[in-house]
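note to self: the first set is below, dont mix up w the second
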Amino acid sequence: MVVYTKNTQMSKQVKKPKFKLSEADFLKMILEIFEGDPNILLWRQNTGTFPLANRDGTTRMFRAGQKGAADITGIIKEYRCGYCNRLQQGIRIEIEVKGTDGKLSDHQNEWLDNISEYNAICVAIWPEENDMLPTGFLRQRLEHAIWQQCPECYKKQGKQNVRT
């Protein structure tokens, strides 16, 4: 199940948001929100290719992570499905974070689709203006995306892997 928290089919007539938030700042906000939560363990998942110095002075390229892997990964200790009320334990979570104007690459879409086939909860999230308020709106948005329903119920309903 891949949850998109922004309508990816928006028409060109929709006004651009008046605020800007970088992917790095938004990612930091998300990690801080769940820091210390006993039910969810999240960490930054760095990916990409980096030059690495060898002892002889030459350099080589080092690949960290899988191509297209989400920015944040983690484990949810347990939660109850909003539909079947079954207790779900040890569920993998992947969160792809985007800045205000960010777009998912083909590799990122493929990663989220593939990892969701293994019953992981996958979320692609863009910032909204209300996320900046100290009301807990961002946490509520993430919790709604994460705990809406278990992967089994989502598949039983015959829904696609994409929700808006």
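second set (the one i keep forgetting abt)
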Amino acid sequence: MISEWFWERAFAGSPDVLGRSINLNDIPVTVIGVNPTGFTGAASTLPSEAPDVIVPISTPSAQAVAAATKDIPIVFSAVTDPLGANLVRDMHEPGGNVTGISDLSPVTTHLHLIEAITPGARTIGVLFNPLESNSHTLVYLMKKTAMGVNMTVVEAPARKPADVAAAAQGLVGKADVIFVPTDNTIVSALDTVVKVGVENGMPVYAGDIDAVKRGAIAAIGVDYYNVGRQAGNVVVRILKGEKPGKIPVTVAEKTNLYVNPTIAAEMGLTIPEDVLSQADEVVK
């Protein structure tokens, strides 16, 4: 079983994924299904097995486990807003039995990237699902950070994938560029956003590097392999005797820059050489 998050990013939401073979750590496995967003599986029953540490991946899973036990150490991974999710009381001293790694998008770096590729852009249209708490956090941070670099953010909410195309179209004439955050609803309909970008000469940026392969011109995204290693290091500290409530929550250390000069040209842009030279991957 794969998560809806992975399905959207790795397979563009294709129904043909069932029965396909993929490699995990060089081991071939077959995809037999997709777990919907919010699915927590047996998370709430894990404490009954009395593990030494529980490592939930994603906000819903972490919340389910945290609600089920106040005694067993929990090290969450890939949670965007631990405070907003009520998982910890403080990022530096979490307290209780929970700590972990946040995959909060590097908002400031994204704005600098937009400025480097589209220096005349002053208004950023941000598509997001208002029902996703993580997206609210990202939009808030983008608006706050944009003020410091003489930019403004125009919100474009879409509650379901079918609403994304209209929300993107509504940004035409109101925004200079479009930004797609790590929002499952928006990412699932990315193709419709790219279509609006190409037809109207509006560059589409993203908070997820896999989106660049699907038509965004550039993205700076978290390296999730490294996030797993960071979480593993925290688990080791706990197994050696440290209390999770005393271990600070940290943000993903490593990010990657992906750019797509081909789609950028279709949107009327040329990605500067200095940006291309810094890219971890140039999608062609």
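remember for set 2: The chain has two domains: 2-101+223-253, 107-221+256-282.
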